[in-house]
Amino acid sequence: MTMLKPYDAAEYLDSPETIAAYITEALESADPSLITMAIGAVARAKGMSEVAEKAGLSRENLYRSLGGQAKPEFGTILKVLQAMEISLIAQPAQNHAA
pTM for the complete prediction? Predict the structure, then answer.
């Protein structure tokens, strides 16, 4: 029997462009849990301890906040994104009628 390793997106988030595309896809889903888990995957890819330190959070709190079960405050999300050098940019939705 072949044992499969669980998929972890963090293993493939190895460039700023890939990370930006991944976060953008999550944001487009409009699913808060999916967005939070995507940010968590990026944090794991960049190193949870380093991201937590830059964001001014404990590593345990960061894991808890970005695990998908919690509903972190928007301020926490902004701190984490800033620590990971990710900017949120607003633009009109693609289905926006002119």
Answer: 0.85
